[in-house]
Structures are given as C-alpha cells and as structure tokens.
Design brief:
single chain, mainly beta, flat, binds zinc ion, two-stranded antiparallel sheet, 5 strands, three-stranded antiparallel beta sheet
Length: 64
C-alpha cells in the first residue's frame, strides 16, 4: 500500500511556499546534504513573508 502523499500549506494563506529550518550534515557516500532533523515549529511562509504555521494536506484529492 502506497503512503498517501501530502503537501504543506500555510495555515494562514494556504500557500505552499513553506520553509522550515533543518539540521544537515554532509554525507560523503551520498555526495549530498543529509537532513538529520527538521525544526518544523519554526516554519516560514514566503507568501506571508513571516513566521507561519503549516498544515499537512493530502495530495490527489479533488482540488477546488
Ligand atoms: Zn502564508
């Protein structure tokens, strides 16, 4: 069973341009930054240009 995909939306403006801080470390084997943990209580919304709360929204449901 496939996991339901979700997206993040700003709880204020419903925009999807949500950013959160993350703690990353360089992985030599993957040759990429590896996210160790995310700080999703410190979200930022590009649309509101400020700190924001976000909500998970399922993707694939009929959108208005
Ligand atoms: Zn917003």
């Amino acid at each position: 069973m496939r996991k339901l995909k979700v997206k993040m939306v700003c709880s204020h403006c419903r925009g999807e341009n949500i950013k959160v801080n993350a703690y990353v470390a360089w992985s030599k084997s993957a040759q990429a930054w590896e996210v160790l943990s995310t700080y999703d209580d410190e979200a930022w919304c590009d649309d509101c240009e400020g700190e924001a709360l976000f909500e998970f929204m399922p993707i694939g449901r009929a959108a208005k």
